[in-house]
Amino acid sequence: MLVTWKYRPRNTFIQRLDPRTRLLFFFCVIFGLTLPDIWDYRVILPLFAMSLTLYLLARIEWKDVKRVWLFIFVLVFMIVGLNALLSGRGGPASVTNTASPVVFEVLGIDVTIAKIWFALTQVVRMITMTLLAIPIPYTMDPNIYGTAFRKLGSSDKVSFTMDLAFRFLPTFARDFTITMDSQRARGYELEKVKGGIASRLRKLAPLIIPVVMQSTVTGEEVIDAMDLRAFGTNPRTWIKADDLRYKFADYIMLGLALILLVGGFVLRFGLGIGEFFIPDFFTNLFL
Fold first, then answer.
1. Are 154 and 70 in contact (CB under 8 A)?
2. Distance from first CA to last CA of the chain, Å, rounded?
3. Which residues contact 117 (CB under 8 A, 6 or more apart)?
4. Rounded to two decimals, what is the model's pTM?
5. Is 270 exposed, middle or buried (0-12, 13-18, 19+ CB in 10 A)?
6. In Å, how far are 6, 138, 141, 142 from 9, measured between CA atoms?
7. 202-239 tens-digit pLDDT
8. Any idea what DSSP says for residue 103?
9. Ranges of each domain in the chain
10. pLDDT tens-place string over residues 127-141
């Protein structure tokens, strides 16, 4: 289930946007989806449709992201979805406190219409965020991560921290893949790793230990390189800082992000729209 993010230039609308625009838009949508008591599908579905449109505009090949989506589906449907379906936790109290017809029972737990609708709402929320997040590592130059945060006004330390954080998982996945291929070349049969949890962990030691050691050594090398360059003593320069310039499309996207953010506040706190409720058409499906 390892995922290796492979960036490559694509002549797409998404990749022509300024990295700062994409980050700000992403944060605005996330903030809008996580406003207090935003559970109304009439608010979530338009954001989902917009995120799906932007994802398709990125034109990322399925072969590049199929492992990512497999991991996301397992995480969202098996963990988030099942938790919401069986327990109703993580949402408004009305999911479990409101009287709702029981559809079926699992292990002595009543699964009601309210829980089913809440689970669907949770899954759509998570997928909406994922649709905006996945294109970032595939379509944004890794060399520009830190620069983008610096140009957004972050300090050098915060910008460099974010740069390293964005690079960590792909680097870890790459090191694991290299180690796995090296062990296979030495005759280690990974496909025959069977047994209980303790047995599997013991047999995976030839993979885990080299990767952990490599990560530790890499971290020390980064620290030494930063110390040698006196990082943090004075403001530093960023090579590609002058390459980041807002264009007309960036202003359009930033305006849309602002509309989404302000609109979310107006709908929730001004008009009182956004609270959890079960639409009649969904209730009628089970009656």
1. no
2. 41
3. 278, 279, 282
4. 0.77
5. exposed
6. 10, 9, 8, 11
7. 666 777 778 778 778 877 888 888 888 787 778 887 87
8. E
9. 13-284
10. 998 999 888 888 888
